[in-house]
C-alpha cells in the first residue's frame, strides 16, 4: 500500500528521474529512500516510483512533505509512456553517467522532451552526474558538466548512487527549488498565471493543494500496473 494513502502531510510532491538507460536512476532512488545500493542492474520497465516522507523548513514554517520519486525507463520504446507523466511532475532530476559520454550528449534531447511535455517551458530541474565514485572510468569532467548546466541555467551536482555521496543533497536541491516556486506562486497569483500560462492555471491549483486524495494515488498506481510489469 502506498504511504500516500495515510494523508498526514502538507504536500504531495511528484519528482521524475530522467536520463538514458543505465545511468543509475533506479539505484539512485533506492539509495535515497532506503539507504542501500543495489549492485545488480535491472532495467526499469515503463515507470515505477519510490516514496519518502521528509520535513522541510522555509520562511520560519515547517512543512511535512510526501515525496513520490518516479523512476522512468530510459529506453526509447517507453518514451510515449513516460512522457505522459511529465505534466503532473513538479520537479525533474535529469541524470547522466559520468563514465558514459553518450548519456551526457543525450541531455539536450531530454531537455527538449521536458519543454514539450512538462507543466511549464521552464520547469524545475537539477542536472546530476552520477557514478562520481568511478573516478578512473570518468569521461565527463566536472567542468564539462558545469558548462552544460550553465548553458541551460540549471543547478549541477555530482553524486554516487553506490556510496550515497550527494544523493540526499541532489533531492534536497530540487525540493528547495520547487518549494520556492510554490511559495512565490501562493503569494503572487499573477506570477502563478505567468509561470504556467493562462490555459494551465488548473495545474498549479492541483500542485498547491494541501493534500491529495487516496483515490488519486490509487488511480496512478492502477495505471502503472495496467501499462507495464513493474
Automatic annotation (TrEMBL):
Pfam families linked to this entry: Ras (PF00071)
Transmembrane domains' residue ranges: none
The UniProt record lists the keyword Metal-binding: no
Sorted UniProt keywords: GTP-binding, Lipoprotein, Nucleotide-binding, Prenylation
Keyword GTP-binding: yes
Cross-referenced InterPro entries: P-loop_NTPase, Small_GTP-bd, Small_GTPase, Small_GTPase_Rab
GO MF, one example: GTPase activity
NCBIfam families associated with the record: small_GTP
Family the UniProt entry places it in: Belongs to the small GTPase superfamily. Rab family.
Protein name according to UniProt: Small monomeric GTPase
Organism, scientific name: Glossina pallidipes
Amino acid at each position: 500500500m502506498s504511504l500516500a494513502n495515510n494523508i498526514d502531510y502538507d504536500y504531495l510532491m511528484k519528482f521524475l528521474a530522467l536520463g538514458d538507460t543505465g545511468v543509475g536512476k533506479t539505484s539512485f532512488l533506492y539509495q535515497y529512500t532506503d539507504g542501500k545500493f543495489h549492485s545488480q542492474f535491472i532495467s526499469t520497465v515503463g515507470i515505477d516510483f519510490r516514496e519518502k516522507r521528509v520535513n522541510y523548513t522555509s520562511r520560519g514554517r515547517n512543512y511535512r512533505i510526501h515525496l513520490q520519486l518516479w523512476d522512468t525507463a530510459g529506453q526509447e520504446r517507453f518514451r510515449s509512456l513516460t512522457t505522459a507523466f511529465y505534466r503532473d511532475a513538479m520537479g525533474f532530476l535529469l541524470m547522466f553517467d559520468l563514465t558514459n559520454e553518450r548519456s551526457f550528449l543525450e541531455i539536450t534531447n531530454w531537455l527538449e522532451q521536458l519543454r514539450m511535455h512538462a507543466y511549464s517551458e521552464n520547469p524545475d530541474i537539477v542536472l546530476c552526474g552520477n557514478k562520481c565514485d568511478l573516478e578512473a572510468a570518468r569521461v565527463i569532467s566536472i567542468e564539462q558538466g558545469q558548462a552544460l548546466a550553465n548553458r541551460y541555467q540549471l543547478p549541477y551536482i555530482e553524486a554516487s548512487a553506490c556510496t550515497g555521496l550527494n544523493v540526499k543533497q541532489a533531492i534536497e536541491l530540487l525540493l528547495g527549488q520547487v518549494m520556492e516556486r510554490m511559495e512565490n506562486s501562493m503569494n503572487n497569483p499573477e506570477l502563478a498565471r505567468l509561470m504556467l500560462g493562462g490555459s494551465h492555471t488548473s495545474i498549479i491549483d492541483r500542485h498547491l493543494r494541501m493534500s491529495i486524495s487516496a483515490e488519486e494515488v490509487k488511480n496512478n498506481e492502477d495505471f502503472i500496473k495496467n501499462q507495464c510489469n513493474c
